[in-house]
Design a protein that fits this description.
Blueprint: H1 3-18, E1 21-27, E2 32-36, H2 38-45, H3 47-52, E3 60-66, E4 77-79, E5 87-91, E6 99-109, E7 115-125, E8 133-139, H4 144-147, H5 150-164, E9 170-176, E10 195-201, H6 207-210, H7 215-227, E11 255-258, H8 294-321, H9 324-330, H10 334-356, H11 381-385, H12 393-396
Parallel strand pairs: 1-7
Antiparallel strand pairs: 2-5, 3-6, 4-5, 6-7, 8-10, 8-11, 9-10
The structure holds 2-acetamido-2-deoxy-beta-D-glucopyranose.
2-acetamido-2-deoxy-beta-D-glucopyranose (NAG) is lined by residues 92, 172-173, 175, 179-180.
Length: 398
């Protein structure tokens, strides 16, 4: 009986032995990504096969949360497309997110249902550099998981570097179009969610990028949108373009952000009436003007009362004074009662007379006493002379 317990204990020991800790720095305002390597965790589940280099391909999922809380910090997002793919923790910390984030990652093997826990410490450190000039590109032919691996990020960076002519580019944000109101694509090859990629630099936008701000560009985009044809870039200041076709950007959804100028302060709210002067004291009015409650009293008390009274009187009149049936019976005089009596007697006599005229015709068999319904046989006329109630019981049974 103790065997399962020992196995469990051993598993726990092994699991805790392999529990890893990672410590990462995330500068404020820069894109941060931590890849949860499926292959590495796979091997952790199979410490023996790791030695022999034979690791089964188990589906593995990750559950991530901040230590002592049910969810991740607001700036960190988590994604994993499929249990056979790597998972990603990513996001852009802001000034208010400064500090240490201890992220607990529960690794679940979907085949054996073994789990173990890993901890990642993400330190949000001060801003490394100011990136006053930022450009957001839309990459239509990508899903977020395909852009997060460092190699793909590097390819995109290379493309943008050529267009921008700056070598200090940094990623500021990478967002799935689904997080920005995009539609879930059809599950068919060739349909993608689309990804927004934001990069920043200290260098002002190149000629190629500035083109996005021109009215010519806006008109070309409008024309392309209306005709449904793909947008053709107006001038060709952008040398290179995209090396990998799926990294090509959609120019009409490119936007430039210039954060170098200080933001204008928000307009001062206009004071409405009813706001006290600062320092003043509330002075309640001495006496309120008298209010006339009489119309309310009439509407809520007098009127329903009068209505109820009228209805009561009407009902009383109908019930007491207009009961016609009762009135008639009470009014039946003795003469009338006598008349009724005579009528009844007369009717009875008439009926007897009608019965007398039937004498010649034999009465229906069913009316005769002792009639046998099955054989149709009836007793001899002698017996018929007897009154049925005077026939002795024995004779009646013959
Ligand atoms: C990054 O993108 C996400 C999703 O659109 C947004 O919530 C977040 O504020 C962005 N962060 C920065 C620094 O732009």
């Amino acid at each position: 009986m103790a065997a399962p317990h020992w196995t469990l204990l051993l598993t726990v020991c092994v699991a805790s032995f392999f529990t890893a800790h990672a410590n990462k720095n995330a500068p404020v305002g820069q894109f941060f990504v931590y890849e949860l390597q499926k292959e590495v965790h796979q091997a952790d589940f199979n410490p023996v096969s790791k030695i022999y280099g034979q690791v089964p391909d188990d589906p593995i999922v990750f559950k991530c949360n901040k230590q002592f809380s049910p969810d991740l910090p607001a700036w960190i997002r988590y994604t994993q497309r499929h249990p056979h793919d790597n998972g990603f923790l990513y996001g852009t910390p802001m000034e208010e997110d400064r500090g240490k984030n201890i992220i607990e990652i529960t690794v679940i093997n979907r085949r054996t249902y073994e789990t173990f826990q890993e901890t990642v410490i993400i330190n949000v450190v001060p801003r490394a550099k100011l990136m006053p000039f930022q450009v957001e590109f839309f990459i239509p032919r990508r899903d977020i998981e395909k852009v997060l691996p460092p190699t793909v990020q590097y390819d995109i960076l290379q493309d943008v570097q050529k267009m921008w002519g700056a070598d200090d580019l940094e990623f500021v944000n990478i967002t799935s179009a689904l997080d920005r109101g995009g539609r879930v694509p059809l599950p068919i090859a060739g349909y993608f969610e689309g990804v927004y990629v934001k990069l920043g630099s200290e260098r002002y936008f190149s000629k190629c990028l500035q083109e996005v701000l021109t009215p010519l560009h806006a008109r070309a985009c409008e024309a392309a949108r209306q005709s449904g044809r793909p947008y053709v870039k107006v001038t060709t200041d952008c040398s290179g373009g995209c090396l990998v076709p799926s990294n090509c950007v959609e120019w009409c959804r490119t936007s430039l952000l210039d954060l170098s100028k200080p933001e204008p302060p928000p307009p001062v709210p206009t004071m409405g009436s009813g706001i006290l002067e600062t320092g003043g004291e509330f002075d309640p009015p001495e006496s309120l003007p008298p209010r006339d409650f009489f119309p309310d009293y009439v509407a809520t008390v007098i009127f329903p009362f009068v209505l109820a009274l009228i209805l009561f009187l009407l009902l009383a009149y109908v019930m007491c004074c207009r009961r016609e049936g009762l009135e008639k019976r009470d009014a039946m005089t003795p003469e009338l009662q006598l008349h009724h009596h005579h009528t009844i007697i007369g009717n009875a006599d008439e009926l007897r007379g009608m019965a007398g005229t039937r004498e010649g015709v034999p009465p229906p068999l069913s009316t005769l006493p002792m009639f046998n319904r099955r054989t149709g046989e009836h007793p001899p006329p002698l017996q018929r002379a007897y009154q049925p109630d005077s026939i002795p019981l024995i004779m009646a049974q013959q």
